[in-house]
Amino acid sequence: MKNKLSFLKISSVFITLLISIPMITIFVYLFISNTDNWQHIKDTVLFEYIYNTLFVMIGVGVLTTLIGFTTAYLTSFYTFSFSKFFDYGLILPFAFPTYIIAFMYNGMFGITGNITTWVLNLMDKNLSEVVFFDIQSVQGAILVISLVLYPYVYLVCRTYLNFESASIIDAAKTFNLSSWKILKKVVLPISRPAIIAGATLAMMEATADFGVMQYFGVNTFVTGIFKVWEGMGSIEDASKLASMLMTFLFILIILEKFQRRNKVYKSSGKDFRPIVKTKLTGSSNFFASFICFIPVFFGFILPFIQLSVWFIQSYKTVIDDEFIDLLVKTVQLGLMSATAITIIALLIVYNARLNKDKTSSSLTQIVKLGYSIPGAVVAIGILSFFGILNTYVFEVLSLDFIISGTVIAVLFGYIVRFMAVSINNFESGFNRIPQSYDDAAQISGIGKFKTFVKVFIPLLKSSAAASFIIVFIEVVKELPLTMVLRPFDYNTLAIRAFELNEQSQTVESSVPSMFIVIIGIISVLLLIKNMKKAQDAKY
Amino acid sequence: MFKKLLLSVAVLSSSLLANDVVNVYSSRHYDTDKIIHKMFEEKTGIKVKVIQDKADALIKRMQSEGKNSPADVFITVDAARIQRVKENNLFQSIESEYLTKNIDSKLRDKDNEWFALTKRARVIAVRRDSPLANGIKTYEELADPKYKNQIMVRSSSNVYNQSLMAAMIAHHGVEYATKWAKGIVANMARAPKGSDRDQAKAVAAGLGSTAIMNTYYFGKLAVSNESDKEVVSKLKVIFPKFENGGTHVNISAAGVTKTSKNKENAIKYIEFLLSKEAQEVYSKGNFEYPILKEAQTAPLVAAWGKVQDDSVTINDLGKYNKDAVKALDVAGWK
Q1: Quick check: pTM over 0.90?
Q2: Rounded to the nearest 5 degrees, what angle is found at the Cα of B58, between the Cα atoms of B267 and A101?
């Protein structure tokens, strides 16, 4: 048995090392740079990068928390008109990639957008005569990104509130506290770890965003990385910027983990009971429905309408045989990577649960880091790693062989980039399984491997399904990493949308975008079904 | 097991090295290029395999692949980038009588490592009803305070602005160019964002009167939907010149990679890209200027007027690109 255990640990260490290599190659540049370029960056743009990145992080953190937590609270504790729909409808915006929602919002509310133009015509004014909110700004970017990413906070908070809080709330109720006081004194403090866990993911994704920032003209670390790389031709200084960003986010992940470890409230498992929801009537009924409607409307319905209008205008010219081929390739890539990532994450998290030592728990934190690095930077790291392999292995052995440009390279990129999403799912899944289960299995003499197969895997089915679906959506939406590492003549929906948009065919780019969103919606619906099943199983 | 896996992937990847192919790394992402590839395949039976990405990512990819790189041809969409490929020692010199005879020496590398495929001019689109903007003759005067709140232009991370700035440095030196860029920043109608096309739309809608943009985008707008056509109807293209030169043009260019395994096919392919039939597809489909003299410019493009190319060489654009990026940062051009 001991052998199997050490096998698990060794393989976890090996996999983590492999996943970390691209990040390490970038991190090395923290200490190397071209002095001239670096001095210039420090003197001119570095402060702006830091300021904007922090502004976006904080803005997205606050806004996703506000929307995600409020809606999770309302749907967990109350029933109101359409609350059954909102329960799950609130997840739908997650189907949109951030860059597509940015195109849609600029198409509607940009200075030359449909809605802006319509309002200006109505007022009989032109642009120079009216002052209005410019969506292509740092505030606009925060708004647009938050509309897509708030489901992270919503999902974590909802799961947490539904599974963990009933007994505490019941206790609070016996003190005859008002709903408002219960919210303030009990629900908010106990939800803090869940809120921070969700908001951290949203903030990491926002920080790594390139598409929206570039399109909206916001200079952040990520746009800076590309400007330095492409403009100055300096991969060293670009990597130095990337490694600074990585270090900062690593500190954030550690802090998040630290606060969760100390503050998390966990039910012991056996005293679980569902929350008894209060029925709202009158104005509070209307108010609750209205609050939940806002994010669904702006995060999903409105951009979906815009997307549909453009889709109808252009689908005939875009859909051809080649299009079907890239649709199939996109789905294949999503399925393959979701399977690989889910299996690897499960191994790593299970190792951390069994071996409660510092190494095992840090391994899970290290592999999460990939999520904070922009896809194209992950790709630079991977290419550097492959470069070393090519020079010191394949060329030495005279093997006429390269890894870049194979599907394996693309999959490796996704594993580095999206492991965090899957690990977070399994961590919360494992957290819900009381330690007593491990102990009971150990006392009854079932081996740890058998415990894993017979006890944990059935209990983790819904976490595995959630991980699979979320990674699948992420891969379908992913753009830069796929572009850098893909094989010849290999295209995906996201790349096609990018190509068309680069050719000024924004309307036509809605066709691949629509398919990405539809695949996203189907996945979200499956996720919802999975959540429902998990909840029913708990009851 | 590992060896087996390696071998099976090696077999897969070796199919890319078969004789009847040409493997292209391209930073052009246009549907017209796909049409041209099909024409080449039909004519020669040589299969064109493409990886499209940004030039710098492709450079990094080739460097990482080393001797085993499958790339035969590298195509970029900007002068500074093609120079960067050369500086990184990734091209080889090729001999082609057709290319040296038909391509102007200013539009190919002195060592025959790369050849221009198409040209685009960086022009200004002005609103027809704006008397102020209609008089613009030079790039230099765009920095004149009389154009305050009039200029719309995309960000300095865009390579076309970097090349324009590099040309300004080549003409006047870094100090003057930085001052010029500061003047442009002071004259901007709003902070830079969006694409060239977005600048044109905003000018047509009344924000500012002058958009700095590439001819290619103007053509795309002209054949797009009704609202874009309306935008075009409100605008006029002006070809500004440098005070001591001509209109700034940028190029797409191609070269054969140093490690090419299909060199003969690669040369045939580049020769085809510079044939009359392919050059006319570039112009008609993508509104670019052909390089080959006997190829006809698309009527829509020709209707905007004649371009007198600037005297600054492609080498200069590459040479000053880094200085341009730095000067744009110093000037506060976002």
Answers
A1: no
A2: 125
